[in-house]
Design brief:
Helices cover 40% and strands 20% of the residues. It is of the alpha/beta class. Strands 4-5-8-12-13-14-15-16 form an 8-stranded mixed barrel, surrounded by 6 helices. A 3-stranded antiparallel β-sheet has the order 1-2-3. It has a 3-stranded antiparallel β-sheet with strand order 9-10-11. It is globular. The chain binds 2-phosphoglycolic acid (PGA) and zinc ion. 2-phosphoglycolic acid (PGA) binds next to loops.
């Protein structure tokens, strides 16, 4: 396929920050994609190219210039070939030259374009490309935001309700539980990911509130993303003004797991504290999922390393942490090779692009994190999952 039109521009994400949108055309076919942006980013993530003034002008220029130029001479047999070219063209391990944001916007648009030409839904194209069995992911609904997503009003970054079952069963439960929590919290602000952002003076309170919902709603359980790299400074984790050693934090997690039957804990420790991950996985890994995010950054080599050292038993997959769909698929393959489950995830700065819903379904993800139910950009992903369920039936 000859891609005869390449055009990128800057759009705004949910935080009002600039991000890259790209449109590709091949004859009568045309596809557009835009990329999200994180705030609690892992230091080993692929590089998002952002200019000193906060804009993405250089990333946009790289798509419209160098990438468009390189496509002129190419006849691609697959979306994978497009990605191979993008990776080679950038030439750096962390995508710092052209920018992971520039590359991923092109990569997702190319994935869409090929799916269109092949006349198959996007999720089916992703499943075929990676050799995955497509299935509906559990919804990891962001109920309450803390950490950097809500000015540390709560210590942990995400308090989630995990809902089992197909989307058309799970989403009504999510809506009802989210509305109930809203009534109980009264008037509070919202966090970056479209969940509530209340303030409490005890660590337990958000868990008690979620435990109330778990009792009321079947097929639900509690999960957290501690995003602990953001809590770590001067050798200690700071929660509600109190320092915790890694051992003390481990004891806290154990207590929370016992008291509230936690389903999963993501990034329980700082991204450089691999040994603490291993100790916690030895302690709790039989009972719950210990998910790597900043630790593994959707990087196949880092996932393999974390598995060898038994640091985790589940992996968060965010395509923009690695920069192309091809490598995100390889990260999922590396995850499955270890018999780990994958949870596909949006970012805290999102757009209306629903790629992550197709990706989660296509890879047969154990779960999807797509935020709370208070922002249209988050709801769009859940709506797309409903649409996919319809397409797949
Ligand atoms: P981020 O947060 O998109 O701000 O990095 C999401 C997460 O940590 O899972
Ligand atoms: Zn995370």
């Amino acid at each position: 396929m000859r891609i005869d039109f390449v055009s990128a521009r800057s759009i705004l994400d949910t935080r009002g920050r600039a991000t890259v949108e790209t449109t590709l055309s091949a004859g009568m076919f045309s596809a557009t994609a835009s990329v999200p942006s994180g705030k609690s980013t892992g230091s080993h993530e692929a590089c998002e190219l952002r200019d000193a003034d906060g804009s993405v002008a250089s990333a946009v220029a790289n798509v419209n210039g160098e990438i468009a130029q390189a496509f002129r001479d190419c006849d691609f047999a697959s979306a994978d070939e497009v990605d191979a070219l993008l990776i080679a063209l950038d030439g750096t391990p962390e995508k710092s030259r052209l920018g992971a944001n520039a590359l991923l916007a092109v990569s997702i648009a190319a994935t869409r374009l090929f799916a269109q030409v092949e006349e198959i839904p996007l999720w089916r194209a992703i499943a075929a490309r990676g050799g995955f069995t497509a299935t509906a992911p559990r919804l990891y609904i962001n109920m309450m935001n803390g950490g950097v997503h809500a000015g540390f009003k709560l210590p942990f970054q995400e308090y989630l309700l995990v809902i089992e079952g197909k989307t058309s069963d799970a989403l009504p439960i999510a809506r009802e539980a989210f509305a109930k929590l809203g009534e109980r919290l009264g008037s509070v602000s919202m966090g970056d990911e479209g969940g509530y952002a209340p303030t409490f003076d005890t660590l337990e309170k958000p868990f008690e509130l979620l435990a109330g919902l778990v009792q009321e709603f079947p097929h639900t359980s509690i999960a957290i993303d501690a995003a602990a790299s953001e809590l770590y400074r001067d050798g200690a984790y700071h929660l509600l003004g109190k320092p915790y050693s890694a051992e003390e934090l481990s004891a806290l997690y154990r207590e929370l797991v016992e008291r509230f039957s936690l389903y999963s804990i993501e990034d329980p420790f700082d991204e450089e504290s691999a040994d603490d991950f291993s100790r916690l996985t030895a302690l709790l890994g039989e009972k719950i999922l210990i998910i790597g995010d900043d630790l593994t950054v959707t990087n196949p080599a880092r996932i393999k390393e974390a598995a060898e050292r038994k640091e985790i038993n589940a992996v968060l997959i965010k395509p923009n942490q690695i920069g192309t769909v091809r490598e995100a698929i390889q990260a999922v393959q590396a995850t499955y090779a270890e018999d780990f489950v994958a949870v596909a995830s949006h970012r805290s700065g999102e757009t209306d692009d629903t790629f992550i819903a197709d990706f989660a379904y296509g890879i047969g993800a154990h779960g999807i994190k797509a935020g709370g139910l208070a922002q249209p950009e988050r709801l769009a992903k859940y709506e797309r999952l409903l649409e996919i369920e319809h397409e797949a039936s």
